[in-house]
Write a structure and sequence with these properties.
Layout: E1 8-13, H1 20-29, E2 33-37, H2 43-60, E3 65-69, E4 84-86, E5 92-96, E6 106-108, H3 112-117, E7 123-126, E8 131-138, E9 142-149, E10 152-154, E11 159-160, H4 173-184, E12 189-192, H5 200-208, E13 213-218, H6 221-224, H7 227-233, E14 236-240, H8 241-247, H9 253-267, E15 271-274, H10 289-301, E16 305-308, H11 310-313, H12 318-333, H13 338-344, H14 353-367, E17 372-376, H15 381-388, E18 395-399, H16 402-408, E19 414-418, H17 425-438, E20 447-453, E21 462-469
Parallel strand pairs: 1-2, 1-16, 2-3, 3-12, 5-6, 12-13, 13-14, 14-15, 15-16, 17-18, 17-20, 18-19
Antiparallel strand pairs: 4-10, 5-9, 7-8, 7-11, 8-9, 20-21
């Protein structure tokens, strides 16, 4: 199933989309990777969803990626004696370690790590920023804050801390169990929520040991200060604009999105733009014009993927949401300005053999108007370097490792095919030509560019490119 676009689509599964017919319909409508949100999924359901996706994958003969999104630390208020209190600017309220139900003067905050970390002047945001306070007095057991804006506090509302770096890691005990379950289920990606610093990635990488690729979600202001290090330690990045927009001024988020996308493109790491992209389609059959422009902006920026959350997980129009996102992406990529924008944003090649080969492959393929660039990769590195160049010619990625092909399903422009392992370089060439024809990217008499690493099956050794003519029967290269 050849897509008519390069950007990829992630669709979140949930109550509206947890059956095999709907998941298959989502894939046919355009979903390339499925996200399973562990905030709302138990382990038996996780295993069931993975099984359904793998059955669809086998039925359709296409590698499908699966992303398991870890919940991360959730900080919430305790309870009030009457369930809620009214507040107004200027009021002061104390957050403390006393579990007694709260009143108009104080409330339990069951997170000693927050009480220990807050400092005078730090902001405290409650209920997605609907109530905003700043700390006027701090101690390890109680913090007093003054209300800046808001009218009501109620039981168990979420607490955000835009100015405070907590000592706890991003991986909670629940996340550890969910990570182990995800690895056992053989998902392709795990997303780590609320990353603040590069060290937050160390524990998940230690547990993963390469069995699953790690994506860092950028939704904390603290992460931006060390974004380059976080990108270096991650296999991919997600710009999670929902929480980022709570803890930072909303008007700053679009610029941050662009900065992160460009940094990831420079590093050759896949980047996903997420949250509220087609939010109105949760309950409406069509999106707003502003939402269409939002999706289009991410595609114009060269993001690897765009994501649907509640739209496909719990909305009334899950398949229509994916189809709409697919249609928007196709139209943007056919726009006469698209290629010029993508080219202008292309990062310079790094001084490595792999980058030099990928750059040369793009330039040769575009100069000679070759039918396709075919990458042979076991680890995925060759495919990612080719995608970094954002060539105008199609990229077909062949891998003898199903796990690699599934992971690459998230990367820009890569049409992934699982194939038997090649015996030698000539076998790579013949296999590349045959599959390019079979997948409708080339015809007999066309020329294709082949890039690979020699010796074969050596990770990160991209060092060979070759132009091959597709033979008259379309089954081999010349």
């Amino acid at each position: 199933m050849r897509r008519n676009r390069r950007v990829k689509i992630l669709a979140t599964l949930g109550p509206a989309s947890n059956t095999k017919p709907i998941i298959e319909a989502l894939f046919k409508a355009g979903a390339d990777v499925f996200r399973i949100n562990m905030s709302h999924t138990d382990h038996p359901t996780l295993r069931q969803l993975v099984t359904l996706i793998r059955e669809i994958e086998a039925d359709l003969g296409r590698p499908i990626g699966i992303l398991c999104d870890l919940q991360g630390p959730k900080h919430r208020l305790g309870k009030f004696a009457e369930g809620k209190i009214a507040v107004k600017p200027g009021d002061k309220i104390t957050f403390d370690s006393d579990p007694t139900p709260g009143d108009a003067k104080r409330v339990h905050l069951p997170h000693p790590e927050i009480l220990a970390a807050l400092k005078v002047g730090d902001r405290v945001l409650i209920d997605d920023g609907r109530v905003r306070l700043h700390v006027v007095k701090a101690s390890p057991t109680a913090v007093t804050a003054e209300v800046i804006a808001g009218s009501k506090l109620s039981d168990r509302k979420g607490v955000s801390l835009p100015d405070t770096e907590l000592s706890e890691g991003a991986l909670t005990p629940k996340d550890r169990k969910d990570l182990e379950a995800a690895i056992a289920a053989e998902v392709d990606w795990v997303a780590l929520s609320f990353v603040q610093r590069p060290e937050d990635l160390a524990e998940v990488r230690k547990i993963a040991r390469g069995r699953v690729a790690v994506m860092a979600k950028i939704e904390k202001p603290q992460a931006l200060a060390r974004i380059e290090e976080i990108i270096d330690l991650s296999e991919a990045i997600m710009v999670a604009r929902g929480d980022l927009g709570v803890e930072m001024p909303l008007e700053a988020v679009p610029g941050i999105q662009k900065q992160i996308v460009r940094r990831c493109r420079r590093a050759g790491k896949p980047v996903v733009v997420a949250t509220q992209m087609l939010e109105s389609m949760i309950s409406a059959p069509v999106p707003t014009r502003a939402e269409v422009s939002d999706v289009a902006g991410a595609v114009f920026e060269g993001a690897d993927a765009v994501m649907l959350s509640a739209e496909s997980a719990a909305g009334d129009y899950p398949v229509e949401s994916v189809a709409m996102m697919n249609s928007i992406a196709e139209n943007v990529e056919q726009d006469p300005n698209y290629r010029g924008i993508i080219t202008a944003q292309r990062p310079a090649a790094e001084a490595t053999g792999a980058d030099a080969i990928s750059l040369a492959a793009r330039e040769i393929a575009e100069t000679l108007n070759l039918a396709a660039i075919v990458c042979y990769t076991a680890s995925g590195a060759t495919g990612l370097r080719a995608a970094r160049e954002r060539p105008s010619r199609p990229i077909v990625t062949l891998s003898p490792v199903a796990r690699t092909a599934r992971r690459l399903a998230i990367a820009w422009g890569l049409h992934c095919v699982v194939t038997e392992d090649a015996t030698d370089l000539e076998d790579v060439v013949h296999r590349a030509c045959r599959i390019a024809v079979d997948e409708d990217y080339a015809s007999p008499g066309d020329r294709v560019m082949i890039i690979a690493g020699v010796p074969l099956r050596t990770p990160g050794s991209t060092n060979m490119l070759r132009i091959a003519f597709v033979s008259s029967d379309g089954r081999s290269g010349i």
